[in-house]
Amino acid sequence: MRRAIISDVHGNLQALQTVLEDIQSQNCDQIICLGDIIGYGPKPRECIDLVKDFDACILGNHDLAALFEPEGFSNAAEQAILWTRKQVESGDAPSACYQRLEFLAHLPRTRREGDLLFVHGSVRNPVNEYVFPEDVYNRRKMDKLFSMIPKLCFQGHTHVPGVFTSEMAFLRPDDIEGRYKISEEKAMINVGSVGQPRDGDWRSCYVILEEPWVSFRRIEYSVETTVQQIYDTPELDRFLGDRLRDGR
Ligand code: ZN
User: Fold this and answer.
1) Enclosing domain of residue 168
2) What is the pLDDT of residues 100-139, one digit of tens each?
3) Which of 19, 67, 187, 198 has the largest count of CB atoms under 10 Å?
4) Around ion ligand 1, which residues have CB less than 5 A away?
5) What is the pLDDT at residue 170?
6) CA 141 to CA 129: how far, in whole Å?
């Protein structure tokens, strides 16, 4: 089985469409999304409509915030969430809006398949907890997380791709020539972000899992198209466009 695992689309339709073309060219049998379909980006409805047809999707903190009250977000993020909610709740025919809300409301917080776990943030707090590369220096946190995962945990949320090993290392895709070989060891694998990468590389990121290999892919998309769509939406801070160019 060859699976594409994507995360953090954030309403960036241009990026999502380009990644889906790549996934198709890679002959994947399944697509799984680890959440944050929406928030920040200019095309939330269109992105939900595409992700709805995937084999599985997990709930992200932005998906949740669009359904309920945004809490603990920066000002620009909160404004974007409120605008996003309006688009999803009432920016289309009532029946289409209802379908999208119903889809978001039924997203699970985790998915387990044998040795594999899929979450948005972390095994301990699936929707909200960040696991950053520098957390490898926080032994207590990492020990706790590793004790809770079956063998492999696929996650997103930080928008920084890489592999956390049980030896407390964080392997960036460039350190391992873009692919990680699954062994007997436990690992937490961050699949990166399709719609808003933050590792200094503006290209969309996702992984293909075909055991024993996890391959990280970087895909160029028309970033200026999305930047312009953000500029054209007064409710979205221009910074949300600017950051896409630098992958920050
Ligand atoms: Zn996110």
Assistant:
1) 3-246
2) 999 999 999 999 999 999 999 999 999 999 999 999 999 9
3) 19
4) 8, 36
5) 98
6) 11
Distance CA 221, CA 193 (A): 13
Residue 145 CA, ligand 1 centroid: distance in Å: 20
* Look-up of token digits 């920084």: 160
**How close is the Cα of 193 to the center of ligand 1, in Å?**
7
Report the separation in Å between the CA atom of 78 and the middle of ligand 1, taken as the mean of its atom positions. 13
User: What is the sign of the dihedral through the CA atoms of 200, 205, 209 and 213?
Assistant: negative
What is the predicted pLDDT for the residue at 72?
A: 83
- What CATH number did the domain enclosing 219 receive? 3.60.21.10
What is the distance in A from the centroid of ligand 1 to the CA of 99? Answer: 22
> Cα–Cα distance between 150 and 159 in angstroms, integer?
23
pLDDT on residue 13: 98
d(CA 248, ligand 1 centre) in Å: 12
Contact 207, 23 (CB under 8 A): no
pLDDT at 73: 84
Q: Using alpha carbons, list the distances in angstroms from residue 16 to 61, 73, 172, 187, 222.
A: 19, 24, 22, 26, 11
How many distinct structural domains can be found in the chain? Answer: 1
CA of 52 to the centre of ligand 1 (A): 18
What is the CA(62)–ligand 1 centre distance, in A?
A: 7
- Residue numbers of the chain with a pLDDT score lower than 70: none
95 SS3 class: helix
